[in-house]
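Title: Prediction job returns without error message
Component: structure pipeline
Severity: low
Priority: P3
Assignee: unassigned

Description:
Job completed but the reporter wants confirmation the result is attached to the right record. Sequence as submitted:
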Amino acid sequence: MNDLKTYMKAVSEATEAALNRLLPPETTYPPSIHSLMRYSTFAGGKRVRPCLIMASFEACGGTFGDEHALLACAAVEMLHTFSLIHDDLPCMDDDDFRRGKPTAHKAYSEALAVLGGDALCIYAYECLGSIGRADVVVEMSRALGTGGMIGGQVVDIESEGTQATRQTLEYIHRNKTAALIRACVRIGAMLAGAPGSTVERLSAYGDFVGLAFQVVDDILDEEGTTEQIGKDAGSDREKGKVTFPSVVGMAQSKAYAKDLIDKARREAAFLGDKGQILADLAEYIRVRIS
């Protein structure tokens, strides 16, 4: 996994350099919103989604550091951050901490948090538009809309405090989390000029990795520490959130996460050595609960 750590560090540094270049400086008027955007975007995180874009891009013949790939990496981090800012709002999950720091609405204000999230979404689409690929814009839009992340968030909110079925839980996780992760893998391949058959095969990998990522998050909310997960441990349970441990139990949740990761690794195998980083990224998710 040492090679993966080096790779993740390189992608993180390249993505953050792009973000620093693309986002307005804190001093740009009005400074409050630009300060909030940077506060949330540079709050930490492993930059897993940019890693998936770049690893897929390289596996399909692209070159590390390509400007279009970096624009996509920066855009997905802006979009991910926008979703976290809004997810933390009092009208949503009402969280006080994110990645060990006060959430945007706590550090600034609720109104600025709403606007800052909106602004990051808009800047992200400016980045995607600069690539000049309508298919990439469409791919990302589908992952975020009511057939993706937003749809999953709606059902997540409406399911709080209910006896939700596993089918409902799978819908929430596949849309709220896995849809964007799948889009990252697909976009990396699309930008590298991969044929449609390759993009579709990578979609299955993205589905398995994305769902496993959220199942592991559910597990860590129960078994992880506040320091480890960057927010109050057990907060999902306290809010009546629908999670895999609450629906199928902890043992089955861990077995399911590991099965999903094994399937993701098998899906990446068709790329041979070029798909090793993708396989390692799947394994990285397993290590979080091992």
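Comment from assignee: result matches the submitted record. The chain has 15 helices and two strands.
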